[in-house]
């Protein structure tokens, strides 16, 4: 609920946070991230900061690959062009109709297509990251971040996966 309410606020991320993101992402990743709506960019910054905190003091601390994965994990939501309220409705539609309907819905037109695209945001985001030459780890995490059964297939360290998942679900 807190994330939904925060998404209703239209403000951009703080300039200091945006400057920090620019030090982490590659130029092509930064361009991709910059196209995300304000609320998604704010969320991604919060997730990335939590990942940093959780990995502090570990072998994986200070590795920009994991922060990039946190910053870009929801970039596939761009394709749906849905605001927070319609996203909530799309999530409910996916729960009722089953996420298996997403591929079919995304071949339709109008709001049905957009709902299908939203439900497919993990794979679409992964594809976007790969197309711009983004880091493989970010693309892998984007693809599987909603499917825990697929996390081992990424080859990402389990401590990193646990930090990324916990940070996004906080």
Decide which structural class fits the backbone: mainly alpha
Strand content: under 5%
Any idea what the shape is? globular
For the biggest sheet, the summary is: none
Q: What's the total helix number? A: 11
Structural domains: how many: 1
Question: What is the helix/strand order?
Answer: HHHHHHHHHHH
Q: How much helix is in the residues?
A: 55-70%
Mean pLDDT: 90
Radius of gyration: 15 Å
Number of strands: 0
Gap from first CA to last CA: 11 Å
Query: Unreliable runs, pLDDT <50, ≥5 residues?
Result: none
Overview of the molecule:
The chain is mainly alpha-helical. It has one domain (2-168). The protein is 65% helix and 0% strand. It has 11 helices and no strands. The radius of gyration is 15 Å and the shape is globular. The mean pLDDT is 90.
Sum up the structure in keywords.
170 residues; mainly alpha; globular
Write the layout of secondary structure elements.
Layout: H1 2-7, H2 15-24, H3 27-34, H4 38-55, H5 64-72, H6 84-97, H7 102-105, H8 110-119, H9 121-131, H10 136-144, H11 158-168
Helix pairs in contact: 4-5, 4-11, 5-10, 6-8, 9-10
In short:
The protein is an all-alpha fold and 170 residues long. The chain has helices at residues 2-7, 15-24, 27-34, 38-55, 64-72, 84-97, 102-105, 110-119, 121-131, 136-144, 158-168.
């Amino acid at each position: 609920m807190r994330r939904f309410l925060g998404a209703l606020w239209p403000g951009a991320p703080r300039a200091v946070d945006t400057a920090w993101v620019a030090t982490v992402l590659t130029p092509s990743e930064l361009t991709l991230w910059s196209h995300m709506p304000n609320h998604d960019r704010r969320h991604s910054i919060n997730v990335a900061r939590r990942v940093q905190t959780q990995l502090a003091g570990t072998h994986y601390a200070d590795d920009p690959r994991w922060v990039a994965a946190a910053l870009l994990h929801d970039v596939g939501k761009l394709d749906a062009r849905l605001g927070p309220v319609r996203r909530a409705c799309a999530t409910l539609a996916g729960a009722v109709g089953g996420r298996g309907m997403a591929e079919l819905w995304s071949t339709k037109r109008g709001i049905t297509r957009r709902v299908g695209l939203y439900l497919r945001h993990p794979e679409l985001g992964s594809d976007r990251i790969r197309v711009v030459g983004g880091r493989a780890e970010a693309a892998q995490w984007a693809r599987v971040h909603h499917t825990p059964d697929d996390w081992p297939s990424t080859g990402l360290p389990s401590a990193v996966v646990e930090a990324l998942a916990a940070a996004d679900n906080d």
